[in-house]
LysR family transcriptional regulator
Amino acid sequence: MNATLDIELLRTFDTVARMGKFRLAAEHLHKSPAAISVHIQRLETIAGGRLLERDNQSVSLTALGQRLLMSAAELLQTHDRVMGELHGPHVIGSVQLGMPDEYAAHVIGDILPIFTASWPNVVLEVTTAPSFTLRDHLQQGKLDLALLTQPRAAGSDALVLTSTTPVWVGSAVLPATLNDPVPLALYAADCPYREAMISTLTTAGRPWRVVLDSASSQAIRACVEAGLAVTLMDRARVTERMVIREDLPIMPDHEVVLVRPPARESNEAVELLINSIQRYFRL
């Protein structure tokens, strides 16, 4: 039987795989959970097998799903680039975008090239800063759009890209037991993970000390991998030279979101960039 892959079905599958939950994918795509299930079932029929393993909490990819996901991402990018080539030259504008340092390499390296190729007459200006600083910049009208991290459900004005449970990480060569005070590699002031580390350890009665205080995610990573300190990190960003520390307090869930300034009229360029980041952002 000849079958044709539907772009909408692939988009749904890609979103479910990225978000990790049917409910979040439904909210993200503005569809009902039932519609999301139907899309996945139709795609599984075409693929000839199960793409996702489901439980009450989340979904995970099967081996077939992992193979399809890699091809689906390439196909979606090609589709969007072709659509951009058809309509892109007609959109003119500018966007001031802010994001934390830890997501800059992914967004700048993987997402913005696709966007600029599709919409060549949109001028981008990118700023990196801690998440809470970016919120201030939005309030002050210095940004058109910001990608940031915040505690879950911290603001109703946010468009959720994905949810994350940050984990404590240390070097693979750190001693098995951390002695107090806990050595910390702290993110810059105004970072939610910095506040979460300090408040959680303080509440648990664990003394701590600062080994590194830096706005650079690369410096934080180097400090942890060298065995000098522990820090808080998205689970998906844990490197091969790190281990997750289960002997420190459990952290609350956070989410990665897109936020626009309050009471500012949107424009087509901003909406197009939002769509691109929604489609391609991954932890």
Notes: The longest helix spans residues 63-87. The two ends are 37 Å apart (CA to CA).
